Amino acid sequence: MDFSAYEENNSVNKIFKSAVPQICKDEPCLFGIDEAGRGPVLGPMVYGISYCPISMKETLEKKAFADSKTLKEEVREDLFSQIQECNDFMGFEVDILSPNYISTTMLRRTKYSLNQISMDSAIGLLRLAIADGVQVKEVYVDTVGDAQKYQDKLKGLFPDLEITVTPKADSKFAIVSAASICAKVVRDKVVKSWQFPESIDVSQDQLGSGYPSDPTTKRFLADNVDPVFGFPRIVRFSWSTASKILDEKAVPVQWDDDEEIDESAKGTASITSFFAPKGANPRKKKHQFFNDRHISQVTSF
Q: At what angle are helices 114-131 and 99-106 packed, to 10 degrees?
C-alpha cells in the first residue's frame, strides 16, 4: 500500500483502507479494533481495524496473528502482507492521527483527552466500514480507559452490534491481533519515511524509540527545539517531556489570560474606551474567543 499521500503532508490525519471483499458485504462479519503508538512523544498514533466473515473465523485463527508488540518487525511485515493477500475475505482500515492533531486537540480551550481522541478514531473507522457496506455483526475492541464505560458508549451508538471491549483484546481475539498488526506496521512505515518540513537532517537512530523515557529520544528533543517555534512537526508537544524542555529552552510567553487583575483598578474605564465611537455599546464587543479565531459576523455571502 502506498502511503506517499501522508508523507506529502504529515500535519493532518489520513485514512487508508483496503477494498471491501464481496463476501464481507454478503455475510455477517467479525470486526477488530486496536491502535499503535499511543505512548510515544514522537510520531503519529495509528488506529487499525480488520474484518472478515464469521464463517472464516477458523481460517483466521490458523494464521499466526498475535499482539503486534510481541512480534519481531519482519514477522509483522510478513503478516501484514498476508492480510493484504487475503483480500478475497479480509479487509482493513488505518487512521493515521498526526502528532500535530493529537497535541492541538489535547491542548485546545476545552480539554480533550487521549482516550477521547482514541474513541473518536475507533468509532469513525467502524462507521466508515459500515458505510462501505461491511456487514458488521461482532465487534472486538482493545480498551482505552474503563472497559465497561467504553463498551456501554459503543453499544449506545451501535445498538444492533454485539460489542466486546476488554483489556489485552489483541492477545485474545485473532481479528484484533490482525488490526494491531495493521496499525503497528503502518506506524513504523510512516515514522521511517517521515519528511521533516523543517529541513533538519535526522537519521532513524537519532530519534530512538520515540518513548519519553528513551535517552536517545530525550536527546533529540533537547537538540531540536527552537526557542521561538518549538519542536519539529514529528513531536507531540502536549506530552509533559516536551513541555518541560519548552519551559527550559524556549522564549517565555505571557498570555493575556495570565495577567493578574489589579483590584484597585476595578471600575476604572479602560484607556481603549476613550477611542471608541461615541455611544458605542461596550457589551457588543466581540469575545476574545472570536478574535483569536478571526471569526467575523457576516450578513451576506
A: 120
Residue 30: CB atoms within 10 A of its CB come to 26
Contact status, residue 246 vs residue 237, Cβ threshold 8 Å = yes
The length of the chain is 301
Place of cell 482516550: 115
Do residues 145 and 167 touch, judged by C-beta distance below 8 A?
no
- Distance, CA of 262 to CA of 259 (rounded, Å): 9
Predicted confidence (pLDDT) per residue in 61-91, tens digit: 888 776 667 788 999 999 999 999 999 999 9
Cβ neighbourhood burial of 57 (10 Å; 0-12, 13-18, 19+): middle
Residue 189 class from Cβ within 10 Å (0-12 exposed, 13-18 middle, 19+ buried)? middle
Q: Are 163 and 154 in contact (CB under 8 A)?
A: yes
First to last CA, the chain: 42
Strands of 98-234 (E only): list them: 136-142, 162-166
Best CA proximity match to 185, nearest among 57, 61, 35, 60: 35
pLDDT tens digits along 165-182: 999 999 999 999 999 999
pTM of the model: 0.82
Instruction: Output the nine-digit C-alpha cell for 252.
Output: 517565555
- How far apart are alpha carbons 96 and 73 in whole angstroms? 19
Contact between 23 and 88 (Cβ < 8 Å) = yes
